[in-house]
Structures are given as structure tokens and as C-alpha cells.
Amino acid sequence: MHDWIGWVATATFASSYFSKHPATLRRIQALAAVLWMSYGVLIHALPVIVANAIVAAFAIYSSFRPRWTRKADASDLDPAGGQEVV
What we know:
mainly alpha; 62% helix
């Protein structure tokens, strides 16, 4: 009966890989983790709840942290001029 929430969580997580922006990908994955936590509550599975609470917290944190706190990598460079894109 509760399987549908697990399937929605799976579809949500899988759809995150269609995102072109890392922050959006992480936010969608955080949503999927919250859905998995709900599923864990419904089936009384503490490991599912705890694991996905950790995943959701890290995904949310990493999606909102300021861009200036990380080093620029190749994906941040303008291919034409090699300048950092902000």
C-alpha cells in the first residue's frame, strides 16, 4: 500500500539527473530524500529514515552554500576566454 511513495521517490531521484545545474540537481535529490524518509516512516524503517535525513541535509546545504566558498573548476570557465563565469 505504501509502495507508491517509494516509487515516487525513485522517479524524483532519477529525474534529478536531467537537471543542468548542480544546485537544482541537489535540491531535487533532497526532495527525493524527504520522500524516502516519509516512506521509511510509513514502513517503520529507522535506517531508511536516518540515511535519507543525512542525504537531505547535505544536499540542501551543498545546494545553497555560497559559490565563492568553492574553488573554480573546468565547468566554471568560459570556453572562449578561459575566464571564470560568475
